[in-house]
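Question (not urgent): is this output format expected?
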Amino acid sequence: TFEDESLTNGYPYIEIKSTTNKIALRIEPKILNYANYNWLLSWANDLEKAVYSYSRLTGLMPFPTIEFRTHTNCNNWGYIYYSKPVVHINNKCMLDEVIRMRRQKIRDVSFGSLHELSHLFDKPDWNFDGEALANIKIPFILYEQGFKVCLNKDVELNYYNYADELYKEHGRLDNIKVL
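Got this back:
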């Protein structure tokens, strides 16, 4: 679906849902100046694939739907609340991320988005640093889905595919035990 409405705090947004409505992107309309509807729909579908991979890895499916919502009052790149199915992302950071991803020569699914999404798949009793854990789960998602991410704002350099690096070092990853 493609909707143009207002959030409760009064700024306009567009909403793009993945094909099965598992993921909703609620983003500023000006993003359409840099990415068309079909590209954004494809990105939403990729994020949905990541949800299923995170679920397979952790044994959790915390919410039936997950929303990526941009905010002007978000001081960090992004954040989540464990009790809510929303990944909050700073408006400017989201715009910069979309512009950067569109310039890539690879199909970049956004390291920051995968990182924040990963937090929704943490178990409360896991006694581990949440930021490190979010990053540790990402290679499995990249491997299982064949995704790539870029960790550097310089779009011409520093492409990383963790799965390729793990494969070079350890061989096939099919033997990883999944919960």
